[in-house]
Recover the amino acids of this structure.
């Protein structure tokens, strides 16, 4: 069996083909354009993403099944008749709805979203983005009046256009702020709160589907019609791909942002006081939903790329090792709040900053502080998780930054835990592929999973330095960034949007 797992992510679309012997091949990878039409707005072209998925699947050759991993909260509006996108994709990083969110908070509605969706009021999630489309886009308003409007996260758009099914899986739906976490259904009360009619949203289905069920549809390719048998949020896919199955198992993916997920089993573990979010980890067809605690960080490798755009370094290889003590030991700290701070603060108004600059501070010092800051933010999230559930002695990590030896060692030190860095970089795709194989082969999918586990392997990094003081120093810097005035200094309070 050959399965094509498409990872449609924030910056690129990739397809990994894996067979039951554990052979794997990255057949296609293409970046898409990022658009920033206004400050704090981030959008993608829905048609470009769709075209990239098609090209990826064609490049995969003859395949037996398809798995799709999506961006999660990123969403779009389209015409039910033609399938034409009526809006750009509003990316999860997009913060245009912060005014709306602050208004809802001031009216005391966050209790409702926490109780029903398990999520705080945040522009990160899809609900307020849908509301913005309905209020501001004439084509969306016209389609709604005509009864042909569809709203959905990107997975629903892709499945509707490519596979003929207007559905979304439960993990993705749990990232919208419109799904009731207990029932797994769209919540009318949440829809009314955000002024988003839930009848415009796709049907919620399980993460996996039997090949002949047509629950997730089928896609016409050059060699024939291929069923889609798994659809899931990218971070939950990476959780599954990392082998996390048991309560407490923890992985952190370091991509554009960083996302820590810890399995909590069949119970949605609510800890809003810790800034952690309950989320659906996966739900197999005919099975119970499994849940996880989620701790997101808005800016991870995005901060490194930003530093590169400023000319602080030339090549990724040049920042894999450094001489001398860590920058935080020298009093130089960076706070990567370039898009605000997510878990555990959920503060969009926080701003990034370096602290401790001196005359001898050079480019290398600045970028090194940026790298350290991402590990320190991850440590904040893991610390919060450790207050809620028992965590393992080792943490599994994947994503681009897991290939940076300096970062991995600093992370192990600041976590005071073993860090197992994945050798197989495509955990999101492999997780989606394993779920697909299990859907196709029942228990036979376990052989597929074992083949991938044997293939991937980890590089283990042990903690060498006590860095408990480093986290305290960093958190002091974070508190200062959260107090920084918004907009131009002296203009008073505004939300910067």
């Amino acid at each position: 069996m050959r399965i094509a797992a498409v990872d449609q992510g924030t910056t690129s679309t990739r397809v990994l083909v894996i067979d039951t012997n554990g052979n794997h091949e990255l057949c296609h990878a293409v970046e898409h354009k990022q658009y920033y039409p206004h400050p704090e707005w981030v959008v993608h072209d829905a048609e470009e993403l769709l075209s990239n998925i098609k090209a990826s699947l064609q490049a995969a050759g003859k395949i037996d099944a398809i798995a799709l991993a999506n961006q999660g909260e990123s969403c779009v509006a389209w015409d039910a008749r033609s399938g034409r996108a009526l809006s750009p994709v509003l990316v999860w990083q997009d913060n245009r709805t912060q005014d709306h969110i602050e208004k809802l908070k001031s009216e005391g509605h966050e209790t409702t979203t926490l109780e029903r969706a398990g999520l705080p009021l945040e522009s990160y999630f899809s609900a307020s983005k849908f509301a913005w489309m309905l209020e501001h886009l004439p084509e969306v308003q016209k389609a709604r009046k005509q009864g042909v409007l569809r709203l959905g996260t990107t997975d629903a758009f892709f499945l509707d256009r490519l596979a003929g099914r207007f559905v979304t899986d439960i993990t993705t739906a749990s990232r919208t702020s419109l799904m009731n976490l207990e029932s797994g259904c769209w919540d009318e009360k949440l829809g009314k709160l955000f002024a988003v009619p839930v009848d415009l949203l796709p049907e919620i289905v399980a993460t996996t589907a039997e090949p002949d069920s047509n629950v997730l549809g089928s896609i016409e390719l050059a060699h024939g019609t291929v069923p889609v048998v798994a659809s899931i949020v990218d971070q939950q896919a990476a959780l599954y791909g990392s082998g996390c199955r048991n309560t407490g198992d923890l992985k952190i993916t370091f991509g554009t942002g960083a996302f820590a997920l810890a399995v909590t089993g069949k119970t949605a573990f609510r800890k809003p006081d810790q800034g952690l979010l309950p989320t659906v980890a996966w739900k197999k067809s005919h099975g119970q939903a499994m849940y996880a605690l989620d701790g997101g960080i808005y800016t991870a490798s995005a901060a490194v790329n930003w530093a590169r755009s400023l000319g602080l370094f030339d090549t990724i290889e040049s920042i894999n090792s450094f001489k001398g003590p860590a920058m935080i030991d020298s009093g130089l700290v960076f706070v990567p709040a370039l898009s605000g701070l997510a878990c555990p603060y959920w503060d969009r108004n926080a701003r990034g900053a370096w602290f401790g600059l001196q005359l001898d501070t050079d480019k290398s010092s600045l970028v090194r502080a940026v790298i350290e800051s991402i590990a320190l933010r991850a440590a904040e999230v893991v610390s919060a998780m450790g207050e809620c559930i028992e965590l393992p002695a080792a943490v599994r990590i994947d994503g681009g930054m897991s290939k940076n030896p300096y970062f991995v060692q600093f992370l192990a030190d600041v976590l005071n835990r073993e860090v197992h860095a994945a050798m197989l970089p495509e955990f999101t795709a492999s997780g989606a592929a394993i779920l697909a194989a299990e859907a196709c082969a029942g228990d036979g999918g376990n052989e597929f999973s074992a083949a991938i586990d044997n293939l991937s392997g980890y590089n283990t990094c042990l903690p060498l330095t006590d860095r408990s003081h480093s986290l305290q120093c960093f958190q002091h810097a974070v508190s200062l960034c959260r107090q920084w005035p918004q907009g131009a200094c002296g203009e008073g309070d505004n939300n910067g949007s």
Q: What stands out?
A: The longest strand covers residues 224-233.
